[in-house]
Amino acid sequence: MLQINVHDAKTRFSKILARVQAGETVVIAKSGRPVARIVAFQTREACQRRFGTAKKTVHLSAGWNAPLPGKVLDAFEP
C-alpha cells in the first residue's frame, strides 16, 4: 500500500490513478497522518453475492420459527 502526502497527490494524480486502476491501494496523508484511501471502483456486478456461498456454514435450531411465548408477544402490544 502506497502512502503519499497531499502535495505529491495533487502533483501526480494521473499516475496515482493509474496505480489504483492496476489494483493498488493508495493512502493520502496530511502531515504524515492518513486521511483518505483511494481504491479501485467496483461495479455493482463485481460486488454481487453469489447464491449458496454460505452453504453448510449457517445452522438453524429445530424450533427457529416456532411461535413466540405469550409474555414476549404481550410486550409488543400496547
Describe the protein's architecture and organization.
This protein has 78 residues and is α+β, with helices and mostly antiparallel strands. It is 33% helix and 19% strand. It has helices at residues 6-11, 13-21, 44-47, 70-76, and strands spanning 2-5, 26-30, 33-38. The radius of gyration is 24 Å and the shape is elongated. The model has no long low-confidence stretch (mean pLDDT 89).
Q: What is the rounded Rg? A: 24 Å
Looking at how many chains there are and whether they match, the oligomeric state comes to: single chain
User: What value does the average pLDDT take?
Assistant: 89
- C-alpha termini separation: 55 Å
Widest β-sheet, arrangement of strands: 1-2-3
CATH superfamily descriptor of the domain at 1-41: YefM-like domain
Low-pLDDT segments, ≥5 res: none
What's the count of strands? 3
Strand content: 15-25%
Order of helices and strands: EHHEEHH
**CATH arch. level architecture of the domain at 1-41:** 3-Layer(aba) Sandwich
Count of DSSP H/I helices:
4
CATH C-level category of the domain at 1-41: Alpha Beta
